[in-house]
Amino acid sequence: MACRREGARGPVSLVPAKLTLSGTGIRFPTTEFFRVGNRVEVTLALLGGDPTQLTVEILQIHPDGTNDSGYVVSGRFVGLPRRHQERLIQFLLRSQASYVQEARKA
């Protein structure tokens, strides 16, 4: 997964295992500072699907308590096409169902 800030020279890599997704937004750790209100382009590939570029408006940013030089950024998807939102929600539902099944086995 990658993120590109407006005016940035190149993408910022994000760690998929540490991000939080919902049908309306995303939260992720990063070493890059983003200003509230800025928009960034995020590229997501869900379960090996085609990469989808999404626009995220930054709503919150605060220091990451586990990393002195890091931040946790929260934002909402802007202009998300309905078909992409539905695909994202289906992915999240499948992921949660899989997690519950694995937890029951343990």
Q: Could you explain the architecture of this structure?
A:
By secondary structure, the chain is α+β, with helices and mostly antiparallel strands. The chain has a single domain (2-105), classed as predicted glycosyltransferase like domains (Thrombin, subunit H, Beta Barrel). It contains 1 helix and 7 strands; from the N terminus they run βββββββα. It has a 7-stranded antiparallel sheet with strand order 2-1-5-6-7-4-3, with no helix packed on it. It is globular. The chain starts with a strand and ends with a helix.
List keywords for this structure.
globular; 23% helix; alpha+beta; Thrombin, subunit H; 106 residues; 38% strand
Tell me the number of strands. 7
Please state the overall shape, judged from the principal axes of the Cα atoms: globular
CATH topology: Thrombin, subunit H
User: How many individual helices?
Assistant: 1
Protein topology:
Elements: E1 2-5, E2 12-13, E3 20-21, E4 25-30, E5 39-44, E6 52-63, E7 71-78, H1 82-105
Antiparallel strand pairs: 1-2, 1-5, 3-4, 4-7, 5-6, 6-7
Q: Quick gist of this model?
A:
The chain is α+β, with helices and mostly antiparallel strands and 106 residues long. It has one helix spanning 82-105, and strands at residues 2-5, 12-13, 20-21, 25-30, 39-44, 52-63, 71-78.
